[in-house]
Amino acid sequence: MTEQKAVTRSMDNLGRVVIPGDIREALGWGIGTKLEVTISDITVKTVIIREISPCCSLCRVESENLMKVEKGYICPLSLRLLSFNFAYSNSNFQNFCKYINK
Ligand SMILES: [Zn+2]
Description:
Elements: H1 21-27, E1 35-41, E2 46-51, E3 67-69, E4 72-74, H2 76-87, H3 93-100
Antiparallel strand pairs: 1-2, 3-4
The structure holds zinc ion.
Zinc ion binds at residues 56, 58-59, 61, 75, 77-78.
């Protein structure tokens, strides 16, 4: 994509700003896309809006191997942890680590 021409938008009374449709389309952003908003430089009042990659709902790792579950995702390691805990419900975390490191 080539550099975008700057667009001016006003914030509404709830603090919302509409991201122009051509920018949303270029970035593949749609309804439900999770965005992170952070202050980039407070002295010049600049923020960064970036897309949040899907991450594991349990350990927050970002991975290409996430499985979609209900409203979130789970990584293979967390899935193994859950499976292990179901299979050996009275085991502790040390036993889990031994199992994973085999
Ligand atoms: Zn995980």
